């Protein structure tokens, strides 16, 4: 695993182990490792929304290296917490071959791409589907405590490929994450987590240090990270949040904001196709 973006004072690491894909619908495996805290995402929502409405880059400095569009990113880059969120967004959106650079009053900061869920953001505002993909990826990085835990991310996007080695090493199903970080400024963040089968059965292995899909007993309807709790992800639960599980791809698809009731999803429950399913080590 190697770090793919660096910040001068922000300890957040993305990693990727590049190997041949084991599924026809995916490319390179994605393993992340970080400790973003949910309140940093909440406090930077407006600045992130401004960023999403513009392009990431103002100009290309050299092949794969771009100057940050400060008109869109300036507010988010003005604080250390904002730079942490910006780094997470860039890592989720851009591929490993891309990097953006910002020259600020306190130094020059390099932000590295990793997953590649929205590469078009370099030159265009973030598209609607891409907003949901980047959001799901960012939410998967959140942890209730500042503990660095490697996590395997999987999903129906070609950017979220896995191979047999990764699936064997990261065997405990934690959660499905989905929603939209970039909601209008007068609306709350749409962030949902459903509980994976292994998380529902306990806290084996690294699940003990990952609680964003665990229901908060002191705050019904929410998880320990403040996400909206959508219940269990799949049909291992009596009421489940997702319509389908891709057995070959080991990820959930078409997940809702609320679980089924009487075998049907509530009409008022939003549905998301852009779902990141996470796994951790035993």
Secondary-structure map:
Elements: E1 13-15, E2 31-34, H1 38-43, H2 45-52, E3 57-62, E4 65-68, H3 70-73, H4 80-93, E5 99-104, E6 107-112, H5 128-140, E7 149-154, H6 164-169, E8 172-180, E9 190-195, H7 197-200, E10 228-232, E11 242-246, E12 251-256, E13 271-272, E14 276-280
Parallel strand pairs: 4-5, 9-10
Antiparallel strand pairs: 1-2, 2-7, 3-4, 5-6, 7-14, 8-9, 8-14, 11-12, 12-13
Helix pairs in contact: 4-5
Short description:
The protein is 20% helix and 26% strand.
Fold and architecture overview:
The relative contact order is 0.16. By secondary structure, the protein is α+β, with helices and mostly antiparallel strands. Strand 5 and strand 6 (107-112) form a beta hairpin. It has one domain (13-280). Helix 4 (80-93) packs across helix 5. The chain has a seven-stranded mixed sheet with strand order 1-2-7-14-8-9-10. A four-stranded mixed sheet has the order 3-4-5-6, with helices on one face. It has a three-stranded antiparallel sheet with strand order 11-12-13, with no helix packed on it. Mean pLDDT is 88; it is low at 1-29. It has helices at residues 38-43, 45-52, 70-73, 80-93, 128-140, 164-169, 197-200; strands spanning 13-15, 31-34, 57-62, 65-68, 99-104, 107-112, 149-154, 172-180, 190-195, 228-232, 242-246, 251-256, 271-272, 276-280. Helix content is 20%, strand content 26%. The two termini are 18 Å apart.
């Amino acid at each position: 695993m190697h770090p793919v973006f660096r910040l001068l004072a922000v300890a957040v690491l993305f990693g990727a182990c590049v190997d041949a894909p084991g599924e026809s619908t995916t490319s390179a495996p994605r393993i992340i490792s970080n400790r973003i805290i949910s309140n940093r995402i909440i406090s930077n929502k407006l600045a992130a929304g401004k960023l999403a409405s513009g392009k990431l880059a103002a100009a290309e400095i050299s092949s794969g290296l771009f100057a940050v569009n400060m008109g869109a990113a300036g507010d988010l880059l003005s604080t250390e917490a904002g730079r942490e969120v910006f780094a997470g967004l860039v890592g989720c959106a851009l591929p490993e071959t891309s990097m953006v650079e910002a020259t600020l009053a306190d130094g020059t900061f390099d932000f590295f791409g990793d997953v590649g869920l929205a590469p078009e953001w370099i030159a265009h505002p973030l598209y609607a589907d891409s907003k949901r993909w980047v959001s799901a990826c960012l939410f998967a990085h959140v942890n209730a405590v500042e503990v660095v835990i490697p996590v395997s991310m999987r999903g129906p996007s070609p950017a979220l490929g896995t191979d047999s080695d990764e699936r064997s090493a990261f065997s405990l199903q934690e959660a499905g994450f989905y929603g939209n970080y970039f909601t209008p400024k007068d609306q709350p963040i749409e962030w949902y987590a459903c509980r994976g089968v292994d998380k529902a059965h306990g806290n084996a292995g690294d699940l003990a240090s990952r609680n964003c899909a665990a229901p908060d007993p002191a705050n019904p309807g929410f998880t320990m990270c403040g996400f909206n709790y959508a219940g269990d992800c799949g049909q291992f639960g009596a009421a489940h949040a997702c319509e389908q599980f891709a057995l070959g791809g080991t990820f959930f698809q078409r997940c809702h904001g609320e679980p089924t009731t009487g075998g049907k999803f509530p009409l008022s429950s939003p549905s998301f196709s852009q779902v990141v399913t996470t796994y951790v080590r035993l």
